[in-house]
Write a structure and sequence with these properties.
Blueprint: E1 4-7, H1 11-23, E2 28-31, H2 34-42, E3 51-55, H3 63-73, E4 79-84, H4 88-94, E5 101-105, H5 109-135, H6 144-155, E6 163-166, H7 173-182, E7 191-195, H8 201-209, H9 226-229, E8 234-238, H10 245-257, E9 259-260, E10 269-270, E11 274-279, H11 283-288, H12 294-300, E12 303-306, H13 317-332, E13 338-339, H14 341-348, H15 355-369, E14 374-375, H16 440-453, H17 460-479, H18 484-491, H19 495-504
Parallel strand pairs: 1-2, 1-3, 3-4, 4-5, 6-11, 6-12, 7-8, 8-11, 13-14
Antiparallel strand pairs: 9-10
Length: 508
């Protein structure tokens, strides 16, 4: 890991931070003035710091001047400004220059280390994000529905208009938002993303708009919100349909005039941000139900981009699968696995309720779990198995579906989920265990067993037996419309046995 750079003309401050950070296994490098820092940053042999911690008042250049110059060269580098209490006004102004946080002197050493650790985590997240953006293709897709999306991104490339992206979870809405930012006049500005559904309601306001010191319990320092962080760039509001109603009013105000107040603040803050919103929900229905402000909906819904589900662009599955297999192999440091045309055809029949994200996860699973270098249909995870019929022989091509499989419904043949009483699990339906899929449920059983045996569990036999018996009894009851005696006769067990099993397995 790159070191933490400490800049302070006070030798005692440098000493205390160095020792505290080294105890926490964080390497350090110290400087006495800003001039030496800038010289080190200009050195081609120096990769720079992980985090920069700088005093605000030093001979030979202030911490604020250093902040401006560092941010110009390393915009993603977290900078923590140390300051005496009398310098707090100057420290607050440092946030305009992009400081990560400020550290008032005298400081509590454990709290200082905790703050620096948070800055390190932020720095590492930025590095991973930039690496992924640099290495991975922006977006993949030859399907007509995706080409429409690409054309729309192109038409919007010179615009700052607000965009609403709709689409199912896992379909790649953030990728579209990043592409809109990258190809916009704001490309040199920051791209800041926030998932409004993933943050508790009590914290969301502070995350969006920031807070002043003392605004609430635990607010020991002033904090910039996402709107300030995205100034001059793009703010991506994911799952906007889940935003609390009272915060929708504040968001509308910002979109209207670009001004807002930090939590606990009394002065208006001006920001210049392009907003891109995304949701998997039907916002028109949310408006009718009273859960979303109609005026905010119209403010966000200037341009709407609908992202297709993966099942609507099946011709892209082969390209995406090969890309994700390469990506997973690179992440794990192993040789990329290849996938046969037959296995690709099997994948093409699956509905992918989790969309592209689910396909990516499946490819990661295959990289780890598939026994051979070439992935065959039998190696696919149970959730993408097909219940009946011969495996399709033709690969998926552009604007084509697998021959003879238009009526085949993909099912989950694993033993992990018990179907509700009265419903026939597809893998247990008549004929599902005949013909070429005889090994389908057995393969699922083997995969489940392998996964459980890889853990520390000592009840694998009981666990899998319980699942197996549950499926059998549910299927028998469904076939006999709930008549237990007849179901027991079909299964070849006694009626007392089936009654006891129903109770033990919780199938009542």
């Amino acid at each position: 890991m790159k070191p933490i750079w400490i800049v302070d003309d006070d030798q005692s401050i440098r000493f205390v931070l160095e020792k505290a950070l080294l105890r926490d296994n964080l390497p350090t490098r110290s400087f006495t003035n800003a001039r030496d820092v800038l010289t080190a940053l200009d050195s081609e042999d120096d990769k720079g710091p992980q985090v920069l911690v700088s005093d605000i008042r030093m001979p030979g250049g202030s911490g604020l001047d250093l902040l401006d110059k560092v941010k110009a060269k390393f915009p993603g580098l977290p900078v923590i400004i140390m300051t005496a209490y009398s310098d707090l006004d100057s420290a607050v102004s440092a946030f305009q220059g992009g400081a990560f946080e400020y550290l008032p002197k005298p400081f509590d050493v454990p709290k200082a280390v905790e703050l620096i650790r948070r800055a390190v985590e932020e720095s590492q997240r930025e590095e991973v994000s930039e690496e992924r953006i640099a290495e991975a293709p922006e977006m993949l897709g030859q399907a007509p529905a995706m080409q429409d999306v690409f054309r729309a991104i192109g038409r919007l490339s010179q615009s700052n208009v607000t965009v609403m992206i709709t689409g199912e979870s896992g379909s790649g809405k953030e990728l579209v938002a990043r592409a809109l930012h990258k190809h916009s006049p704001r490309a040199n500005g920051p791209f800041v993303a926030i998932n409004t559904a993933a943050i508790p309601k009590d914290l969301l306001e502070s995350e969006l708009f920031g807070h002043e010191r003392g605004a609430f319990t635990g607010a020991q320092t002033m904090r910039r919100g996402r709107f300030e962080q995205a100034d001059g760039g793009t703010l991506f509001l994911d799952e906007i349909g889940d935003m609390p109603f009272d915060l929708q009013t504040r968001l509308l105000r910002v979109l209207s005039d670009g001004h807002f107040y930090r939590v606990g603040g009394h002065g208006a803050v001006k920001t210049n941000v392009r907003v891109i919103a995304a949701t998997h929900q039907n916002l028109e229905q949310r408006v009718k139900d009273g859960g979303f402000r109609e005026d905010l909906f119209h403010r966000l819904n200037v341009i709407r981009l609908r992202l297709p589900a993966l099942r609507e662009r099946r011709e892209d599955i082969p390209t995406l699968t090969r890309h994700f297999l390469q990506q997973s192999a690179g992440q794990l440091g192993v040789e990329p696995k290849r996938i046969s045309e037959a296995a690709l055809a099997w994948l093409g029949t699956f509905g992918f309720p989790g969309n592209v994200r689910q396909l990516e996860n499946i490819c990661h699973w295959l990289t780890v779990m598939a026994p051979a270098q070439v992935i065959e249909p039998k190696d696919l995870p149970p959730e993408v198995s097909v219940s009946s019929g011969e495996p399709p022989q033709e690969p998926l091509g552009v604007n084509s579906a697998p021959t003879g499989l238009s009526s085949v419904t993909p099912v989950d043949t694993s033993l992990g989920n018990t179907a509700p009483a009265g419903m026939v699990p597809a893998a247990m339906a008549p004929g599902a265990l005949s013909g070429p899929t005889d090994a389908g449920w057995e393969h699922g059983l083997e995969m489940d067993a392998s996964a459980l045996l890889a853990t520390d569990r000592t009840d694998v036999w009981d666990e899998l037996t319980r699942r197996f018996e549950s499926r059998l009894i549910v299927a028998a009851l469904a076939a006999t419309r709930g008549r237990r005696i007849e179901a027991a006769q079909k299964l070849g067990i006694g009626r007392n046995t089936i009654t006891r099993k129903i109770q033990e397995l919780g199938l009542e």
